[in-house]
Design goal:
heterodimer; A: 448 residues; alpha/beta; Rossmann fold; 3 domains; globular; B: 552 residues; 23 helices
């Protein structure tokens, strides 16, 4: 990690609470300062797609609200009381106690306290997520790992180690942080069902503790990000011997989505005809809608060719592939700003994936923790490489508004904080690419 | 009531302490609340169960960001400061509305890691200050301290002192770690403390004494819009007083002109009394603290208070009479639509109080008021409220569980809610108007007209809230709604002071909070000893309550 970072694109590890909140019926309990969750709510939800977690919102989340005297005397007694009252007043299936910096620094032994709740009708588990250990993605991992390690999974009625054919754990999403998670997961469900799989998704409408219970029974885990949830999938392998199919990103557009489905079909032994038929139908659908806009696009408009990306590792990779392979755009400077835990591995994956861009186009995604440096580099790229001329696309977050203005770029907000309202739209697959194209094309008339 | 503070302290005390003795927990009626506040007994109230609320560091950053072209450094782990984007748009639009085009929220994090927690984060802070100055060329640098470095003992004052030699912007040390205060408004004292420690506000002696009209400094805050400031300036100008607004949306260079003011006036004295008293003590600059100019009555009192200081009462009365007549004529046709509707008001105590007066002027009834916090500096306003409508049901709370429970009992027609609570109201089926939306005027006569207009439109079609309530579930069990809304309030003071007060409230609708943990409560049985009983809070309660002096 860099020393200081400017306008960072990550939240606090206690923001892992939003992963718990995305699983209906799972309620986080904060063992932290009174405002720790709010800090993240502003970043992960209100300023990011205008989304708020359903049922529970930050104000209603039980919290020990630690203050001065607790720092001196310890906060466990307070936490115990909060847990007891939560069990009494809230409808929930699972409580996840998430501790922040203060308890970690004063030495509160939360794990010890929770032993008391081993027989609680609603399981109470613990995720240790002090902010100084990492970003909201660190917290996300801690919450998922706490569930896998701490949830009292029952032995399957179908025998020890039973795996359900076709059942797939879907991983690689950080709910809330990716403002399009909810819509994207619905589309993942639709597409995977269409090719004959049964996706087991934890987050979103109609899902919940039943999906948590099914985690051990999946035939394999599907990870759709360069690094997010890879360690979670490894833990599932360790605990339940669940194998992993790792696709480097959530694909956008026909080229990458079709490749993904073919590789998935090969891995999972799916019916090739069924998969190929679905691919054909989906590509036809994509081009049907796209072709209708071509007349508009060429009617006296001059769409920019060069693009910049400042986003998460996953979206940086998926966007680059889509924009180059499907849309025929030219990459300028590309950045991943989600502070991967294993940057070398992610860099290797980027290199490997970008080697095979259509038409031999060259691209490089740099991993940069400090978006302040990104801003300087993009400005100097414009001055040096593009001689300060032209208009470009910038795929980023709402922190890039000023940069877009300074560099005459058309901003398409993709990742957190994306201060546009996102309801059910998403950028996954064939249909997601059409959503994205609407955003991209709608910017073109703003060229003036 | 007299305000006192010790400005020599390195860190200003939390508002629970000192002359304010601000409370954050109460349920009952306005008479009991005011009595309790003036005896300093609010300190004894606490909750045995809490929901996550807010952090004084957020509010501190609001002020720090609003300073023109400032840079903010969050000294802490990478996530402290994540909330900043919320302010980016608002800064640009609020600045533009004030004729001060400005940059968005510019900030750095010192990005403290586990290694820094062990070895200390001071060196990183100094580096970040220098980086902020070099990269952003800001008008000012605000260093906001967070929990982790405060616990491990980073000496931010010393690091800042060393960094000052290497940077061109002034640097301010804001001690606003979240765990230091239960009362979020402590943030205002923390930021003003940082400013007054670093800046010189002694008046620059003019070459010739000023011949112009008297000058008033008005003090603003984030929740006020450009239109609010313009309205008060307009009214003052009409009686021959020039007003300038500080400290938000101005740069430190512009603050230097503060010393030339003849009188300092808070637009909302919950925010800046700490600073005004400092300016009086050090520079002899007088101040007045009329209550927030929300409602016709309060606007009149506000302007008259200032006019009195300059012996301009007669002119002021004429102007105010004409203004009031004009706005009343505009509001009369709407009386029928608003009359008798019952409202709940949620937010900071001066704004809620002013709003209660305004709604009552518009013919509405007050179902309840929910203040985020309260202290005796609100008593003058709430006495005025009681005079007008008798004791009102009142709580001191920022807890949705309490609020939603109240809503089920009170069934108000409309809510006027602070930004944190409006969504809850709408989900519960109550159409809700924001307690502040900086785009719309709220202060003065223009504000009264604007609020009335928006209320009328809201009540004319409450379908959005009605539909939502039908389809959205609220998070608590039926058992919770069967309990008293203030079920888990505890009052450690009452354990030592007997006899207990009457248990019946003069206000209708809500039961008074019980002084002791509820032993008669419906099922299930509560634990016998709530945490606060054995906690130092209870022990500290008695000596911490100073007797505030009665005003005049």
């Amino acid at each position: 990690m860099s020393d200081c970072v400017e306008q960072t694109r990550v939240g606090c590890s206690i923001g892992g609470a939003f992963t718990a909140l995305a699983i209906p019926g799972v309620l986080p309990i904060l063992h932290s300062g009174s405002g720790c969750l709010a800090t993240n709510e502003y970043f992960l939800s209100i300023s990011n797609g205008g989304q708020a977690s359903f049922t529970y919102r930050h104000g209603a989340i039980p919290s020990s609200n630690l203050i001065d005297e607790d720092v001196v005397f310890g906060g466990l007694e307070k936490l115990e009381n909060v847990i007891d009252k939560t069990l009494e007043y809230y409808d929930s299936d699972l409580l996840v106690v998430i501790n922040g910096c203060t308890p970690a620094l004063i030495g509160d032994d939360v794990a010890q306290l929770l032993k008391k709740y081993q027989r609680s009708p609603v399981p109470v588990i613990h995720a240790d997520a002090p902010g100084f250990k990492g970003s909201n993605i660190y917290g996300h991992h801690e919450v998922l790992k706490a569930i896998i390690q701490g949830y009292p999974f029952k032995k399957s009625s179908k025998g020890q180690g039973y795996k359900e054919k076709g059942l797939v754990n879907i991983l690689g999403f950080v709910p809330s942080y990716d403002p399009h998670w909810a819509g994207a997961l619905e589309e993942v469900q639709r597409v995977l069902e269409a090719v004959g799989l049964k996706p087991n998704i934890l987050y979103g409408l109609g899902r919940g503790i039943a999906n948590v219970k099914k985690l051990p029974e999946a035939e394999f885990s599907l990870v759709l990000d360069p690094w997010v949830d890879t360690e979670v999938a490894e833990l599932l392998t360790e605990r339940f011997q669940t194998p992993v199919f790792h696709y480097p990103n959530l694909p956008i557009g026909p080229t990458d989505t079709s490749r993904f489905l073919k590789e998935l079909a090969h891995y999972a032994g799916l019916n090739p005809k069924r998969v190929n038929d679905f691919i054909k139908k989906s590509e036809d659908e994509y081009y049907f809608y796209l072709s209708r806009a071509v007349q508009w696009l060429y009617f006296g408009k001059n769409s920019p060719k060069k693009f910049f990306v400042v986003s998460t590792s996953g979206y940086a990779l998926a966007l680059t592939k889509f924009l180059v392979n499907d849309l025929g755009l030219a990459p300028a400077a590309l950045y991943a700003t989600d502070i991967p835990a294993n940057p070398d591995k992610v860099a290797d994956l980027f290199a490997q994936e970008l080697r095979s861009l259509e038409g031999g186009v060259k691209a490089n995604i740099a991993i940069q923790d400090d978006p302040g440096v990104v801003e300087e580099e993009i400005k100097s790229y414009l001055a040096k490489e593009l001689k300060g001329s032209g208009v470009h696309f910038l795929f980023g977050s709402s922190w890039d508004l000023d940069l877009a203005e300074d560099t005459r770029s058309l901003l398409v907000p993709i990742s957190a904080p994306a201060a546009t309202v996102v309801l059910a739209s998403h950028f996954f697959g064939y249909r997601g690419a059409l959503n994205l194209l609407e955003r991209i094309f709608n910017q073109v008339p703003n060229l003036g | 009531m007299k305000f006192t503070a010790d400005y020599n302290l390195r860190v200003p005390p939390s508002r629970e302490l000192g002359c304010r003795a601000t409370g954050h927990a109460f349920g009952g009626d306005s008479s009991k609340l005011m009595d309790c506040a003036s005896r300093g007994c609010l300190f004894g109230y606490d909750r045995e169960f809490g929901q996550s609320t807010n952090c004084q560091m957020h509010v501190s950053s609001l002020i720090a960001f609003s300073v023109k072209d400032s840079a903010v450094i969050f000294h802490g782990p990478v996530g402290c400061g994540a909330h900043s984007h919320l302010m980016d748009f608002a800064l640009k639009s609020s600045g533009a509305a004030r004729g001060e085009p400005r940059l968005g929220a510019r900030w750095l994090s010192t990005n403290l890691t586990e290694a820094d927690i062990i070895s200390g984060g001071g060196a990183k802070l100094k580096e970040a200050i220098i980086a902020a100055d070099r990269r952003l060329r800001p008008s000012s640098i605000f260093v906001l301290n967070t929990c982790a470095p405060a616990i491990i003992g980073d000496d931010i004052d010393e690091e800042i002192k060393q960094a000052r030699a290497e940077v061109s912007a002034p640097v301010y040390a804001v001690h606003c770690s979240g765990f230091k205060s239960k009362v979020i408004s402590t943030a205002y004292d923390a930021v003003y403390h940082a400013i007054l420690k670093a800046e010189d506000f002694t008046p620059i002696k003019p070459v010739k004494p000023s011949q112009g009209p008297p000058k008033v400094n008005l003090f603003n805050a984030w929740s006020m819009g450009a239109a609010d400031e313009a309205e008060i300036k307009r009214l003052l100008r009409a009686i021959g007083i020039d007003a300038r607004v500080f400290v938000e949306f101005k740069s430190p260079d512009q603050w230097r002109a503060l010393g030339e003011g003849d009188l300092n006036v808070s637009l909302c004295h919950v925010h800046d009394l700490y600073f005004l008293e400092f300016l009086r003590e050090t520079n002899g600059q007088p101040y007045v603290t009329p209550d927030i100019p929300v409602s016709l009555a309060s606007t009149k009192a506000f302007i008259l208070d200032i006019a009195k200081f300059f012996n301009l009462e007669k002119t002021a009365s004429l102007v105010l009479e004409a203004e009031e007549k004009k706005v009343k004529a505009a509001l009369t046709p709407w009386e029928k639509e608003l009359k008798g509707k019952r409202a709940i008001i949620i937010g900071g105590y001066l704004r809620t109080g002013g709003t209660a007066l305004l709604l009552s002027e518009l013919g509405l009834k007050i179902a309840s008021i929910s203040n985020y916090n309260y202290d005796a500096f609100g008593n003058e306003l709430f006495t005025a409220i009681e005079k007008k409508m008798g004791p009102v049901s009142i709580s001191v709370s920022s807890q949705p569980a309490e609020l939603l429970n109240q809503i089920k009992r009170l069934k108000p027609d409309v809510a006027i809610a602070h930004s944190g609570q409006g969504a809850w109201m709408v989900k519960a089926g109550i159409p809700s108007l924001p307690l502040f939306a900086q785009r719309f005027p709220y202060f003065g006569y223009a504000g009264a007209y604007s609020v009335a207009t928006r209320l009328r439109r809201l009540l004319a079609n409450p379908n959005f809230a009605k539909n939502l309530a039908k389809h959205v579930s609220l998070p608590f069990t039926a058992g919770w709604y069967a309990k008293d809304p203030f079920h888990y309030l505890i009052n450690s003071e009452a354990e030592t002071s007997a006899p207990e007060e009457t248990k019946t409230s003069k206000a209708k609708g809500l039961r008074l909070v019980k002084s002791k943990p509820d032993s008669t409560s419906q099922a299930p049985a509560k634990k016998a000893s709530p945490a606060a009983k054995t906690k130092p809070a209870a022990k500290k309660a008695s000596p911490a309550a100073p007797k505030p002096e009665k005003k005049k």
